[in-house]
Amino acid sequence: MNLWPTRQTGVMTATVLISRATPKTIDAVGVPVATTGTVPRSLGLNRAALAAAGFEGKAGQTLVVPNGNGATQIAVGIGEPGALTVQALRNAAAALVRAAGKRATVATNLADLEGTEAAKAAQAVVEGALLAAYRYGGIKKEPNKSTLQQLVLVVGDKRAAGARTGSERGQVTAGAAYLARDLANTPPAYMTARHIAEKAVAVAHSNGLGVEVFNRDQLAAMGCGGMLGVNAGSTEPPRMVRLTYTPRKPVGHLALVGKGVMFDSGGLSLKPSDGMLTMKMDMSGAAAVLATMGTLKALKCKAKVTAYLMCTDNMSGGAAFKLGDVLTFRNGKTAEIHNTDAEGRLVLADGLSLAVEDSPDAIVDIATLTGACMVALGTKLAGVIGNDQPFVDKVRAASAATDENIWQLPLEKGYRKLLDSNVADMRNIGGPHGGAITAALFLSEFVGEVPWAHLDIAGPMAVDGDDGWLSKGATGFGTRLLIELATTFTK
Ligand code: BES
Ligand code: MN
Ligand code: ZN
User: Fold this and answer.
1) Closest residue by CA, ligand 1 atom 9
2) What are the structural domains, with CATH classification, of the chain?
3) I need a labelling partner for 407 at 20 to 30 A (CA). Which of 194, 291, 367, 377 fits?
């Protein structure tokens, strides 16, 4: 699978090997140490010496132990013995790679510990290590580079087969997150709607997906007034991309809709300069959806998955859509524009309408939708709001498995009147409070009776600095969650 054949700007993916023993020539070895119990002798330090250096074995702690000319030993805390989780393993692997610094080859037996299933353990270790190793290359004479070149999972014979399966899956899921991060980190002039559509075609062709790209005229003919309204102020044309993954005997049909606002200036309701800098990442939802689609064949997903990427920027100017304008969406409903910065819901309205026409069993949309959600939940949690609790619970289970954390907010119908308009079926903003919920209520007008969950990823879309398996910049949030959801989905 080749997810990023052309535009990769310096990100380097390490190779991952499974080995029965620690290779002789390795730069660093990660040695798991729990908070109690024996300390592996290979570390060369006993518990008292570790404690004296401030290392207690707590999850995420590391201690670098230089070892003459041999491999650097790195103690990696895994917490209480007997309470090992895949999340702890993912975090431990990330901490190991960060502690390894410039050392290019790293071996560890983290995936060989008792207490977790071999495949799940190896997947988590590979994900943690590769995600922590991610660097956005940047547009630089000397691109930023990831230093990790090789990760060796040291695993005994009993767990080798499982570890191999999990490692392969981890490389696919981490690779997808790399793609989503790359797309969102890329400067807006390098990542327009046309660029992401081109990328989507490439991903589709190399990963067995159907792909259709719709231009401005086609969107107009289809009645996608949300897309046209938001795009009106831009000299860059919009693109809507429809991707399809169709297995032989589908066990269900899932639809994904991603907000692809390639740059959100706010439009005539212009954002203040400070709030605009990160708005090249306002296409993070579409990026996560595209990256997810690219993995489905490799992961032998059994559900049919249809995806819509709703891509345009939101600009001001003489042709821009105005406050008071009324837009008519694909499903015939209309909205009076009270704020051109509430544009995500306008492009999603068309995408959700189209998704419903495919009669899927469930729909997920993913969008950097509201500052209000970020105020409510902070930057470590996305919001989830839906119209069907069993389906929302499936999304929450996928979140729990991937450690891409979400928190449910209610689809409070009592707030629907805040969207009432004299001129149109609704207005595009609610009142000053509950903005994440009123945005979801707006979206709910376009999903009909289909079970639906909305992920508001405004908060976790980016991090200011390296943090565990998150690397500075775009996080690719939602990619692994959606992969997990799609590959476990049944009707
Ligand atoms: N893309 C923004 C939301 C956003 C803000 C994402 C910060 C990531 C970080 C969205 O289009 C927006 O501008 N929302 C407005 C809605 C408001 C006008 C009702 C907001 O949240 O301020
Ligand atoms: Mn906006
Ligand atoms: Zn936006």
Assistant:
1) 458
2) 15-155 (3.40.220.10), 183-488 (3.40.630.10)
3) 291
Torsion of CA 230, 416, 477, 92, to 10 degrees: 160
Mutate to test the pocket of ligand 1, among 259, 268, 281, 341 (most ligand atoms within 8 A of CB): 341
Instruction: Assess whether 164 carries a catalytic annotation.
Output: no
Give yes or no: 242 in active site. Answer: no
The residue annotated as part of the active site, out of 345, 394, 396, 480, is 345
Compute the mean pLDDT over every residue in the chain, rounded to the nearest whole number. 95
pLDDT mean over 378-394: 98
* Tokens (6 digits) for 31: 């040695």
Q: Is the pLDDT of residue 34 over 70?
A: yes
CA–centroid distance, residue 258 to ligand 2 (Å): 15
Strand intervals (E) in 148-269: 150-154, 210-214, 239-245, 253-264
- Structural contact between residues 179 and 171, judged by C-beta atoms closer than 8 angstroms: no
Atom 13 of ligand 1 has which residue's CA nearest to it? 341
φ/ψ region of 490 (left if φ > 0, alpha if ψ in -120 to 50, else beta) reads: beta
Q: Which two tokens stand for residue 73?
A: 């030993």
Q: Which residues line ligand 1 (CB under 6 A)?
A: 264, 282, 339, 341-344, 368-372, 374, 429, 435, 458, 461
Cβ–Cβ under 8 Å, residues 114 and 99: no
The two tokens of residue 203 are 């991903």
What digits encode the pLDDT tens for the residues 4-24?
Answer: 434 444 455 789 999 999 999
